[in-house]
Structures are given as C-alpha cells and as structure tokens.
C-alpha cells in the first residue's frame, strides 16, 4: 500500500492516507474525508472540483494532463503548470510519498 | 450525552451529508439508513458506462463500506424508515426497531415515474434509477434487439447513445415537440436531435404512447399518432417523483418536494433535507426549485450538515448538470428559462460550441458541448451575473477569460 499526502493550502494541514494501487487520487481523498477534494462529478472529468497542485519533485512521475483534462484545467482560474485533476491520476507504487496541494475548489 | 444524527436515504446526498458532518468536526453518532442493499453509489453512470458494461458495480460506490466505518458512520443498508415521530424524536424502521435522534436528515431522493398504461409492469419494460434496474436491463440489452425508449430527456438520450454503440436498434418517442424540452432551449434540442438521427436513432417527436401491445412481454409500443413501434424491450425515462411520503406523514410541508429554506432546514428545527427530494430556496436563483442533479445533492448536503452543526451556510450555488452521449460532453450551467437572446460560440457542425443564454444583457446560462474550458468560464459568468456584449461572446478571437476578468 502506497501513501499520498494532501496539504490543504488554507491552513497547511496535512492528510497522509494509504491508497490502493489503481484507485484514483480523488477517490482516495474522498474515502478519507480530505477536505477541498469534492469530486462532484464522480470522476467524469466534468467539474474541476478535485483540482490539485502536484509537488514539484513529483511532476515528472505523475505526468501531464490528457486531452479532456487539460481542456478543463485551462478553464480554471488558479491553475499552475503543475495542476492536475486528482480523478485522472491512478495510484501506483511509484507514487509512494507523493505530495499534492489543495487550492480552493471552484464550484 | 452524545448527540445522534439519523440520515434517512443513502444516496449521493445522504452519503455526502454524513461525510460533511465529520469534516465539520461533528463528534456525535451518525446513522445512515439506506433502502438499497449497497453503499451509496453514483447514479449518473447507470445510464452510461455501467449500462455499457465499461465500469464495474464497485466503481460506482462513492466510498467503500470500510471508509464509513473508519469515520464512525454507521451505515445500515437494506432498511426502510417507516415513520417519524417528531415529538418523541424517533424513527421506526422496517425491521420494527426504533431509533432515537437529536437531528434528522431526509435525503430520500426520488423514484422513476412509472408509465401509467396496461402492460407497463411486464418484464421487458425497464426503468433507469438503481443498480438493480440496470442489472435486469442488461440481460436484454443486446446487439440486434429492438429497443423502444419512451422519453427524450437525459436518461432516454444517454441510453439511446449506449444502445447505438452496442448495436441495438433504437427508436425514441417523445411526447413534446422537441428533445430535452424541460432543460434546454430549442437550439440544443435541434442539435441533439440531429446528432441522434445521424447515429441511427429513429426519433418520433410530438406523439405520446397510447398502448403497449403483446402477451407475456411487450411486443410493440403503439403511439398516439397511430403508428406502431415493434420492440423487444422498452425503457421508460419520463422523469422522477420525489420521495416525500415519509415527510408528509410526519406533517412536514411538501410541495413537489420537501419544503426547505436556504439552509436546508425544514419547518422542524431538528429536521433538515437535501437532494432530489427537496423543494428548496436557492440564493443564487432567488427562487424555489427542485433539482435532479448530483452537484445540487452534494452542495445541499454540505449546507444541511452545516445547519446540523449550528453554522449558517446558505445554499446559493449555480445549478449545473452534465450529460455524456456518444463522444459529446455536454455541460450546462445556470437555468436558461426566461432568456431573450442566445449566442452560439464555436461550431455545432464541428461538435464544439457553447450556447450562452442572456436575459436583458446578463448571461443567465451556458450549455457547452466538448468545451470544458469554456464551460468553466461560462459558469463563472453565470455566477457573476456578467453583463456583456453578445457579439464578444460569439467572437472566438476574444477570450472568455478576458470577459470574466
């Protein structure tokens, strides 16, 4: 089981959770009641409520957003080059220790 | 003494309400009661990827069963709440037991409106609301079968798209003169009609159903215009009825939904309600509404949880919806009823556009197809009640971001 840490940018609280391989990082956050990751569309890449910033050290391993994800991200206001939608990142052992930062979700 | 919150209905709203209570630091008991045997699950994929078989049942679950236990949420499935005693602060369950509550949340959702015709109870007539509905349906949803869909709303159209992809022969019947009439303007209706016809759906508009013919199974759907649609199976998608009976029996005001205020509060200070079952005040829309949507259920659940925790958070979000059909991602923000101007940005022919709806120069709604970025901008325009030049909205050399900022 690999671990991911979510950091709430509002108060710098850290949530370190165990994530099973294959689970999305939106699902892992929702399962663990991590705030700010809403996943309102259930992972359909339709709402932007699981927007995360990938820690700089992890950007290469996590990879870049795909077509529809990149499209949706370009419509969000507070995006950075390391922005991703957590629903589009599937967990694997190589991501053990990953840190994601959580901006204010845009509803 | 510890306080207890009982949540009646374990769908999207009920599950999210339980989670939101814990996120807000609620330390009392939380008992979440669901009629279906499974954990709260996402219903939108029922008419899409779950029907097509692309996703498993487990993938629908909002959280695993363990996740509820881990956060001290007592999930009791396969149980119905039969009655509420508001004076004694108890609910009676279908197994005869009683539970005491300090706060009660009604997240009872809705059920598929049934077709009121002889023969509608035959085994090849289907509805799309629960996992069980889809399991039953999938046995008959096979390549080459003749499918008659009654209702040209989201459910009917999404099922039609899955059917076409699977090699099912699809006829769709809609009583109103256009598709999606309840949720969008004529431009989008015409666009979706043409898309579905192009994919091979036989669409019959402006005619209701007068009879279902057949023996032990329905063999044909007879339309009010006299025509006959032979069918191996029938899917009915004619709307949702809010589950308000429990609230009504308890003497709570109901009017096409359980009546709640901006804070998801019913007239009883110890009872909140959220989701598809509510007739609620929406601070953004400035009027009462009943919405059938996941984002509304989640947002209102969070509002209701705040009310239980003694915080006053108004429910004032912009309603929004989405629908996946073929390779088209439709996202809609705001409510377009009452618009006096429609602006199309992009190209319907290229399946990539946004329809902006304006009233007196203010953007009140935006429907986008395959334009997620423009949708997010459109939603911000709606939320900010942006007053803008229609020509600029249509001009692709002007970025939407520049209009919002």
Written account of the structure:
The complex is a heterodimer of chains A (107) and B (405). Chain A is an alpha+beta fold and 107 residues long. Helices cover 17% and strands 23% of the residues of chain A. Chain A has a five-stranded mixed beta sheet. In chain A, a hairpin with a 5-residue loop joins β1 (2-8) and β2 (14-19). Chain B is an alpha/beta fold and 405 residues long. Helices cover 23% and strands 31% of the residues of chain B. In chain B, strands 3-2-1-7-19 form a five-stranded parallel beta sheet. The longest helix of chain B is centred in the C-terminal third of the chain and has 15 residues, at 294-308. The N and C termini of chain B lie far apart (51 Å).
- Total helical elements of chain A: 3
Distance between the termini of chain A: 32 Å
How many E-type strands of chain B?
26
**Global geometry of chain A:** globular
| C-alpha end-to-end distance of chain B | 51 Å
SSE pattern of chain A, N- to C-terminal: EEHEHHEE
Short description:
The complex is a heterodimer of chains A (107) and B (405). Chain A is of the alpha+beta class. Chain A is 17% helix and 23% strand.
Comma- or semicolon-separated keywords:
heterodimer; A: 107 residues; alpha+beta; 5-stranded mixed sheet; 3 helices; 5 strands; 17% helix; globular; B: 405 residues; alpha/beta; 5-stranded parallel sheet; 23% helix
